[in-house]
Design a protein that fits this description.
Blueprint lengths: L2 E4 L6 H10 L8 E4 L10 H10 L4 E3 L3 H10 L12 H5 L3 H9 L4 E4 L2 E4 L9 H17 L1 H7 L14 H13 L3 E2 L5 E2 L14 E2 L12 E4 L8 E3 L2 E3 L9 E6 L5 E5 L9
Parallel strand pairs: 1-2, 2-3, 5-9, 9-11
Antiparallel strand pairs: 1-12, 4-5, 6-7, 6-8, 10-11, 12-13
Helix pairs in contact: 6-8
Length: about 270
């Protein structure tokens, strides 16, 4: 049995099938970990959702910001953006089954020494804390989804405190796990800066460069940051290699460290 972690698919169905062929994936033997953002910006989000859902226990996927956006649009709490490519999902006959399945995906998943999230964790969190905070959001997704999406969008609060409560607490957890790229050493999150990591910035650094003594015991596997590209370190694997932006879709064998990539057909030219 092999375990493959796969970067942001974002509706790039043909590349996903080509990648699985390259790694000789067998659905009755191997397992897949998806780092989130199964959908949007690429052309075939519907096929991606159907395919991953059909894998059942052989696939684990965490929610990314685009997945949450789809859920918010589907329940009428957010308008589709001009750049979205979600029309086929929203019009599909099996829409409700797919939306219900997606809404039951976790925001963080741990297996042995690996923790998978879409974006990252702040240095003040341990892996177990991240999982616990993720479960708070997951519970709300299953019981109060409409209210959550009504208040999910926004960049504040920008610093963690255990005293955070209500929607402020849930919004911060979501922002860290699905949107964060940069943070300060004391865990303040900057959601405005995008693109490549800033050079020689004394305040804002990639979240994984902060000292994180509470989560040294795990390898964090994540995506979300296509401008960062493939980064493999002892306790880190960044796998978003920008397939939807003309880059590649990448798989990492979690047990051997081998990576395999297939080139993108190119759907978007410049990441906003």
């Amino acid at each position: 049995m092999s375990r493959f972690a796969i970067g942001d698919v974002q509706g790039c169905y043909e590349e996903l099938r080509a990648l699985l062929q390259r790694v000789r994936f067998s659905a009755d033997r191997d397992r897949l970990w998806f780092v989130g953002d199964l959908v949007n910006r690429g052309p075939r989000s519907l096929e991606v959702l159907r395919f991953v859902r059909a894998l059942e226990a052989n696939a684990e996927t965490v929610l990314g910001n685009h997945d949450l956006h789809l859920l918010a649009v589907a329940c009428g709490r957010r308008r589709a953006r001009r750049s979205d490519t979600l029309e086929e999902v929203l019009a599909a006959k099996d829409r409700e089954r797919l939306i219900e399945w997606l809404s039951h995906r976790p925001l963080a998943h741990r297996e042995a020494g690996d923790l998978i999230v879409h974006a990252g964790i702040v240095p003040q969190w341990s892996a177990e804390a991240a999982l616990a905070y993720a479960r708070e959001v997951e519970a709300e997704l299953r019981t109060g989804r409409a209210e959550l999406f009504e208040h999910m969008y926004g960049d504040q609060p920008d610093r963690w405190s255990e005293t955070l409560s209500g929607m402020d607490r849930l919004r911060f957890i979501i922002n860290v796990l699905t949107r964060m790229r940069l943070c300060s050493a004391d865990g303040r999150v900057n959601l405005a800066l995008k693109g490549k990591p800033p050079e020689n910035d004394p305040l804002w650094r990639p979240w994984f460069e902060a000292d994180r003594p509470l989560s040294r015991d795990v390898r964090i596997v994540f995506g979300h940051w296509s401008a960062l590209g493939l980064v493999l370190r002892e306790n880190l694997a960044a796998l978003d290699t920008g397939c939807v932006w003309g880059g590649a879709l990448t798989a990492l064998d979690l047990d051997t460290g081998r990576t395999v990539a297939v080139p993108s057909r190119g759907y978007q030219s410049i990441e906003p």
